[in-house]
Amino acid sequence: MPNSPTIDRIKALVEGHPIVLFMKGTPQFPMCGFSSRAVQVLKAAGADFAHVNVLEDPEIRANLPRYSDWPTFPQLFINGELIGGCDITVELFDSGELHRMVAEAQKQKDEA
């Protein structure tokens, strides 16, 4: 994938936050049901997460699917790795795995 200023910015966001959700809207005002559900389960898992509103940043909205090789939003990254979209995030929450991943990411952040 060729580097571009937008790809570099996405990479900096993904690597600069232990947990980041690229979503439509904000955690306070999600603009789609999938983003809303992802925020709900992240909060329920105790996640302290950064977010990017792709509706306010057309460059990120256009380039993130190329960066992540994932076509839809929201997109959850933990420790620089794409976890997936809403369905995967909810499945991880239901299995208890999301709690573990969130706790681990936040522990690493606190140790840094």
TrEMBL record:
UniProt cross-references to PROSITE patterns, sorted A to Z: GLUTAREDOXIN_2
Binding residue positions for glutathione: K24, R61, F73, C86, D87
Domain named Glutaredoxin: residues: 19-83
UniProt entry keywords in alphabetical sequence: 2Fe-2S, Iron, Iron-sulfur, Metal-binding, Redox-active center
InterPro entries in the record: Glutaredoxin, GRX_PICOT-like, Monothiol_GRX, Monothiol_GRX-rel, Thioredoxin-like_sf
Family the UniProt entry places it in: Belongs to the glutaredoxin family. Monothiol subfamily.
Identification of the protein by name: Glutaredoxin
